[in-house]
Write a structure and sequence with these properties.
This protein is mainly β and 186 residues long. The chain has helices at residues 32-37, 170-173, and strands at residues 2-5, 12-15, 18-21, 24-27, 46-53, 57-63, 70-76, 79-85, 96-101, 112-115, 119-125, 129-136, 145-147. The protein has one domain (2-180): Jelly Rolls.
């Protein structure tokens, strides 16, 4: 598995190796040994999967008290996945990275995105439908659930919405602006 850097030092693009023949292909998406040797977490406590239609925009979500690291994989369709660094002491504080995720990239690579604890996460569906599967390092903690608005003017994330009207939940529409959001402790 290749571990590639992104524009944010702690967010990583993972490319598992694919083995194929005339029957199809096989890939190992998680190996405790390989994750450990790459300096990635090896303990995940929950798997989540979402199904969404074109234009659905989820996020930017995070949890206080019990932060979640997320290992994100698009298993069908096409999404643009975003991570925002909320760690006040980080040199990347307030910066974001956006990554196009598909089951197989245009270059033929399998891809996953590792987003550590202390980041907000969101994505928009660019295909007719998409399924997203992600592992988390901690469980869902409703009391700590928070959301920064996807269209926050300070973050100014250039979501690829040409021809798409974003569909957001009521909760996400009421998210806090970045400068007013309750963020994790430093």
């Amino acid at each position: 598995m290749q571990v590639l850097n992104t524009a944010l030092q702690d967010v990583k693009l993972l490319q598992p190796r694919r083995f194929g023949d005339d029957r199809g292909w096989f890939a190992e998406f998680y190996s405790q040994t390989k994750f450990q040797s790459a300096g990635l977490p090896t303990s995940f406590v929950q798997d989540n999967q979402s199904f969404s239609t074109r234009g659905v925009l989820r996020g930017l979500h995070y949890q206080l008290g019990k932060p979640q690291g997320k290992l994100v994989r698009c298993v069908s369709g096409h999404i643009w996945d975003v991570a925002v660094d909320l760690r006040r002491g980080s040199p990347d504080f307030g910066k974001y990275v956006g990554v196009s995720l598909k089951p197989v990239s245009d270059a033929g690579e399998l891809q996953m995105l590792w987003i550590p604890e202390g980041f907000a996460h969101g994505f928009v569906v660019l295909s007719e439908t998409a399924e997203v599967l992600y592992k988390t390092t901690d469980g869902y903690y409703p009391e700590g659930e928070r959301c920064v608005r996807w269209d926050d003017p300070t973050l100014a994330i250039p979501w690829p919405l040409a021809g798409i009207t974003p569909v957001v939940s009521d909760k996400d529409a009421k998210g806090a602006n970045f400068l007013e959001a309750e963020l994790p402790e430093a």
